[in-house]
Amino acid sequence: MLQFGKYIEINTEKRFGRPVIKGTRISVYDVLSWLSNGMTREDIIHDFPELNEEQINACLSFAASKEQRHLYAS
Questions:
Q1: pLDDT at position 1
Q2: If you average pLDDT over residues 59-64, what whole number do you get?
Q3: What is the pLDDT of residue 15?
Q4: Which residues lie below 8 Å from residue 25, measured CB to CB, with a gap of 6+?
Q5: Rounded distance between C-alpha atoms, residue 31 and residue 8, angstroms
Q6: Residue 40, CA atoms < 13 Å, CB-side half-sphere
Q7: CA–CA dist 62, 57 (Å, integer)
Q8: DSSP character string of 5-39
Q9: Could you tell me which residues come within 8 angstroms of residue 67 by beta carbon, excluding any fewer than 6 positions away?
Q10: Where are the domains of the chain?
């Protein structure tokens, strides 16, 4: 699994403490939402050139990690 900590940060000063891509105000939720609505990685990078494929993959890895923690906590 990708080490998302290199790309994702949680800062209470940005986006109300939601996880965001480092150096941006783009949240993990934003990226996941775009992907779930049919945007490709290429579409996202075209619309937001400050992003790259590794950052998008980090968002997916972050979500997978949260899901895994949730499953094992039950």
A1: 56
A2: 93
A3: 86
A4: 14, 15
A5: 12
A6: 3
A7: 9
A8: GGTEEE-TTSGGG-EEETTSS-BHHHHHHHHHTT-
A9: none
A10: 1-25
